[in-house]
Amino acid sequence: MTKTSATTQTPVASAPKRSLTPRRRAREYALQGVYQSLVMRRAGSLPNAAAIAKQLAEDPGFRRCQLELFQGIFTGVLEHTDELEGLITPALDRPINELSPVEHAALLIGTYELAIDLAVPYKVAINEAVELAKTFGGTDGHKYVNGVLDLLAQQLRSTEIQAG
């Protein structure tokens, strides 16, 4: 079950039943930061990446995340949001602003890893984004994220997919 913190509008996962790897934890914090940025943008505010990152770093669990991965994903998504949304939009069945902020953030992270961070295998990029949507999103949001990212992977990583 997920809930939203009333003061920060950042999704907060309920106590996980499994141990998170530092890489998974980094992606979860990146999702929370991207989510907060999206919510601020939708409200007409300019997101402050440094302030968001500082707030996330104050969480006790943050020290157990892989910091370099968090920074790379979080800053990379924020720096390339327009480009990433340009890739995502044609694969959607609705306007991008109608996505839930969690699905939107998971799609941005997955697309960032598919299009820009080519060191991440396409299957890992898709799986990690789907897991983020499962953890923080609505009931079937992960299925939508999976479908969109699968389509994007076919376009962006066709050589890798064909190689098997």
Automatic annotation (TrEMBL):
Q: What does this protein do?
A: Involved in transcription antitermination. Required for transcription of ribosomal RNA (rRNA) genes. Binds specifically to the boxA antiterminator sequence of the ribosomal RNA (rrn) operons.
Q: Where is the composition biased (Polar residues)?
A: 1-12
Membership in a protein family: Belongs to the NusB family.
Region (Disordered), start-end ranges: 1-21
Biological source species? Polynucleobacter aenigmaticus
GO terms in the biological process aspect are: DNA-templated transcription termination; transcription antitermination
| Keyword list, A-Z | RNA-binding, Transcription, Transcription antitermination, Transcription regulation
Q: Which domain of life is it from?
A: Bacteria
Annotated protein name in UniProt: Transcription antitermination protein NusB
Gene designation = nusB
Looking up PANTHER family in the UniProt record yields:
ANTITERMINATION NUSB DOMAIN-CONTAINING PROTEIN (PTHR11078:SF3), N UTILIZATION SUBSTANCE PROTEIN B-RELATED (PTHR11078)
HAMAP family the UniProt entry points to: NusB
Read off the InterPro entries from this record.
Answer: NusB-like_sf, NusB_fam, NusB_RsmB_TIM44
Gene Ontology terms, MF aspect? RNA binding
Q: Which Pfam families match?
A: NusB (PF01029)
GO cellular component, alphabetical, reads:
cytosol
The NusB/RsmB/TIM44 domain sits at 24-152
